[in-house]
């Protein structure tokens, strides 16, 4: 899933599937959140393969690339 999949308006106009895509994305994030933990003061995503918790690679990569600022 891409960012344009969850946006209501894209470069191609109105996205009729945006609400469904947002729900699917949020459910995947909820599953992924159960596998986040703090180690040495840093947030760590413990899943090596997103398919283990039924999430797409896009969401898995998103969690790995997020940087939290203090």
Strand tally? 4
Number of domains: 1
The strand order across the widest sheet is: 1-2
Mean pLDDT: 76
Q: What percent of the residues sit in helical stretches (DSSP H or I)?
A: 40-55%
Order of helices and strands: HEEHEEH
The low-confidence parts are none
Label the structural class: alpha+beta
Q: Describe the biggest sheet?
A: 2 strands, antiparallel
How many helices? The count is 3
Distance between the termini: 29 Å
Provide the β-strand percentage band.
Answer: 15-25%
> What is the global morphology?
elongated
Radius of gyration: 14 Å
Task: Give me the secondary-structure topology.
Blueprint: H1 3-6, E1 9-10, E2 13-14, H2 18-33, E3 36-39, E4 42-45, H3 57-65
Antiparallel strand pairs: 1-2, 3-4
Task: Describe the 3D structure.
The chain has 70 residues and is an alpha+beta fold. The protein has one domain (3-65). It contains three helices and four strands; from the N terminus they run αββαββα. It has helices spanning 3-6, 18-33, 57-65; strands at 9-10, 13-14, 36-39, 42-45. Strands 1-2 form a two-stranded antiparallel ribbon. A hairpin with a 2-residue loop joins β1 (9-10) and β2 (13-14). The longest helix is centred in the middle third of the chain and has 16 residues, at 18-33. The chain is elongated. The mean pLDDT is 76.
């Amino acid at each position: 899933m891409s960012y344009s999949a969850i946006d209501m308006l894209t470069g191609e106009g109105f996205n009729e599937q945006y609400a469904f895509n947002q729900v699917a994305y949020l459910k995947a994030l909820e599953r992924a959140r159960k596998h986040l933990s703090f180690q040495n003061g840093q947030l760590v995503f413990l899943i090596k393969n997103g398919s283990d918790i039924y999430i797409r690679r896009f969401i898995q990569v998103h969690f790995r690339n997020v940087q939290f600022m203090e």
